[in-house]
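Hi R.,

As promised, here are both runs. First protein below:
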Amino acid sequence: MELKEQEIKLIKIDANYQQRRYGYRFVKRVFDFIASLLGLIILSPLFLIIAIAIKVEDPKGSVFYSQIRLGQGESPFKMYKFRSMVSNADELLEQLLKDNEINGAMFKMQDDPRITKTGKFIRKYSIDELPQLLNVLLGSMSLVGPRPPLPREVAEYTDYDKQRLAVKPGCTGLWQATVRNSVGFEEMVKLDLTYISRCSASFDLYILFKTVVIMFKPNGAY
């Protein structure tokens, strides 16, 4: 799916309109609940294997990593992932901020020294994100939506950037399913706003399909 910059440059999101889309939101929530519940059940053997691998490599840390993120309307919630970094990763972050490889309010570093060997593998195939199915089941996230940002990231947002918080955040989205880490923060925001302005049941299914493909043929996740 090709998106011309001119098409998405001046997008303005009507948050009230998004809230009035009762039919779409109902269908999306029902699908999210059923799909996340089935996903957690079917993937439970994989969860066990990943949990063992994480503990064998770094017994001191926990299997799961939780972090406060901001969702729709800047509401805070605890997001879950498989731990892919050393147990003291948050303490080391301040030392690495100067090496951020993405411009804007987001931190990304391809050769992040905090990532474990197991973590590198599960990040490459987006397996580390699977525990977010619990967030979807509980309703703090959706299967498809913008990436949920950190509070410190939102503190740097402009009013334009904050438009991406008009809808519930997702496990995957247009950014993750297409260009991922090959673009910067500004481009990510444009893709998120494009998704919000065009979101529909069929568009969500398209993004989910693209995400499944990417899990078997990674697009630069790290």
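And here is the second one, sequence first, then its structure tokens:
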Amino acid sequence: MLAKRIIPCLDIKDGRTVKGVNFVDLRDAGDPVELAEIYSREGADELVFLDISATEQKRKTLADLVYRVAEKVNIPFTVGGGISSVEDVDILLQNGADKVSINSSAVKNPQLINDLSAKFGSQCIVVAIDAKKIDEKWVVHLVGGKIPTELDLFEWAKEVEQRGAGEILFTSMDNDGTKDGFANVALAKLSEDLNIPIIASGGAGNMQHFTDTFIEGKADAALAASVFHFKEITITDLKENLKDNGIHVRL
């Protein structure tokens, strides 16, 4: 059985790590390079770096900051934000990223998933999906959750897999920052529908939430931000707790 992964997320705005609730009310959470180094040392399985304002500001991801973070970590490193071409991915991989995460650009140009997968391999391509429940339907949103689309979460996820994505990072906008737990019902359905790994994101508030998303949500990995940034949970303690609850993790 594959070990379940714990993934801290660095949401970057203006070169700083930030964290909000339901994608708004952002507050400063520290220096991304320092945090990355701490998480790598504590035993994080991977690290995700999302330049959350790159798409909205119509600019590229901060490649120099990516390079500085990559220098400090020895774990797989995924970078997203403002990626819209093969050339963008080339630059990020050259600066130390191991994988890239695309979101809005994938919806606007689904062929991009095929192109990136063909060029770099599916294992390098993570498609992030931000969705919110509206009238009992999970609606995909773009540009940091600001723009609703006509897309259904589950239909889009299936298309993403067919086009060559290696993983899906699903963030429930309803759960994000609430610390009330992950959207496990939706996660379980994604896991049943797809054959690629699903990363759970949005809602982690305590250690039990991680156990729940691995068991009830059938997630392959769990991503969190504020509980790690503000020292509410350490990765070392979390992994020991998961192991005690019968979850297979790398210690």
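A quick note on the second one: The two ends are 15 Å apart (CA to CA). Let me know what you think.

Best,
J.
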